[in-house]
Amino acid sequence: YRYGDSPLKLACEYCADNSESKPNSHLFAFDNPKLNMIAGGSWELSIFPHAPMKWKPKNIQFIYFIEFNEAIYQCEIVQVGLNYFTFIHLKTTPIQNPEKDLIFSLEPSALPNRHRNVFASHGRIGRKIGEFFKNDKVFYQDNSVGNAIENYLRVCRKVVL
């Protein structure tokens, strides 16, 4: 690989971490924080908006879920004063009411509470959820959650499910 217009060339090989060895000083020639993957081994993720303000459980108006790539994401519609937004975080426990809670998943299902596409209208609440995504009123626990949901949304936008 070449780095920009510089004469610097780079050959990459992915291998197991050997933290006891001395780091190769050639990898630190990159003075660009976006290249931490090369210098530090971290994978680059896009930057996603995080919680815009603090709220209390009483501010959560509605909860729904997105199942994607074997993970469950809890999505909370929050109202703080005149501000409405959706906050999405990784759910580490099973969904308590899978037959009643609103769940979005790419897997087909005949259950009335399960839908495949957040952009397809599913009654009043479904349209409102789609508006949060269309109007950039969605915030994420961290960039990893944002990246996963972005991948789910990419499928939703490509295909009319």
Structure description:
Helix content is 20%, strand content 22%. The chain is an alpha/beta fold. The protein has a 6-stranded mixed β-sheet. The relative contact order is 0.16. The two termini are 40 Å apart.
What does this entry show, briefly?
This protein is of the alpha/beta class and 161 residues long. It contains three helices and six strands; from the N terminus they run αβββββαβα. The chain is elongated, with a radius of gyration of 20 Å.
**Uncertain regions spanning at least 5 consecutive residues:** none
Distance between the termini: 40 Å
By DSSP (H or I, 4+ residues per run), the number of helices equals: 3
The fraction of residues assigned to DSSP E strands is 15-25%
How many strands, which pairing sense, and closed or not: the largest β-sheet?
6 strands, mixed
Number of strands: 6
What is the strand and helix layout of this fold?
Blueprint: H1 36-40, E1 60-68, E2 71-80, E3 83-91, E4 103-105, E5 114-115, H2 123-134, E6 138-140, H3 143-158
Parallel strand pairs: 1-4, 3-6, 4-5
Antiparallel strand pairs: 1-2, 2-3
Features:
single chain; 161 residues; 6 strands; alpha/beta
